[in-house]
Amino acid sequence: MNKILAKEQKALSKLCAVRRKHIEYSRKGKCMIYLDYNATTLIDKEVAYTMIPYLYGDFGNPSSSHVLGVTAKNAIEHARNQVAQLLNCESKGIVFTSGGSESNNTVLKGVAHTYKTKGSHIITSEIEHLAILNIYKYLESLGCKISYVPIDQYVSVNPFDIERLITDKTILVPIMDSNNETGTIQPIRKFPKYAKIIVFYFIPMHLS
User: Fold this and answer.
1) Which end of the chain is more exposed for a tag (fewer CB within 10 A), N or C?
2) How far apart are CA 75 and CA 3, in angstroms?
3) CB atoms < 10 A from the CB of 123, how many?
4) Within this chain, do residues 116 and 190 fall inside the same structural domain, yes or no?
5) Given 3-state DSSP classes, what are the helix, strand and coil percentages for the chain, each rounded to the nearest 5?
6) H-state helical runs in 32-186
7) Single residue among 54, 74, 93 that ends a domain in this structure
8) Residue 118, Cα to own-chain centre: how many angstroms?
9) Residues 113 and 195 in one domain
10) CA distances from 88 to 85, 200, 202 (A)
């Protein structure tokens, strides 16, 4: 098994080197400055190495009761605990999905359904990803009201604009934390006003 892992790690290192070469050089051989990491990035070497045993060895279905399944299940729970520790929350609150679109659908549709007796008003920004905007169209067809806050010249959202739109029917405030087109990172952690939305108004926020 160790020989297999060593061989796969060597192949992975070569692949990473080739990918970096494509990023660093354009067709003309000039240096390329890659500024699209908000859209997609290379997999970190440490992450790739950590996943190798489960790609080529312990690949079992974590819902199965055999040895491979139990091993995979234990690995997932270990990762869940690591994420929970990083976020300072309970591990049972960590849900893994297959990607961003599934996560957004789970949260937005889930909250809309769960809180439908309280209200159906959602406040969001004008710069959300298409995967989010498509969900809004679906929710609007069910009767939800979507309010869009404007952005400033830096493509940032002002929390005061969000607060002005809050009503007793508001159930969720989804905001794109890092924009994949402009690279703008919303200064959410610097604004106590965002905390007020969650603590004072008891309205959950969703950062995508």
Assistant:
1) N
2) 21
3) 26
4) yes
5) 50, 10, 40
6) 45-56, 67-87, 100-114, 130-141, 159-165
7) 93
8) 26
9) yes
10) 5, 21, 20
Question: Both 119 and 157 in a single domain?
Answer: yes
Q: What percent of the chain has pLDDT over 90?
A: 40
Specify whether 105 is located in the same domain as 88. no
How far is it, in rounded angstroms, from Cα 117 to Cα 45? 47
Tokens of 67: 């040895």
Place of tokens 């926020």: 205
181: containing domain? 100-207
pLDDT tens, position by position, 19-59: 666 665 555 566 677 778 877 888 888 888 888 888 888 88
**CA–CA distances in Å: residue 30 to residues 2, 17, 187:** 40, 17, 35
78 and 116, same domain (yes or no):
no
Looking at residue 22, what is its pLDDT?
61
Among residues 93, 121, 143, the one where a domain terminates is 93
pLDDT digits (tens, 9 = 90+) for 77-123: 999 999 999 999 999 999 999 888 999 999 999 999 999 999 999 99
According to the model, what pLDDT value does residue 114 have?
94
Q: How many domains does the chain have?
A: 2
C-beta of residue 135 within 8 angstroms of C-beta of residue 119 = no
* Spatial contact of 156 and 164, defined as CB atoms under 8 Å apart: no
Q: Is 171 exposed, middle or buried, given 0-12, 13-18 or 19+ CB atoms closer than 10 A?
A: buried
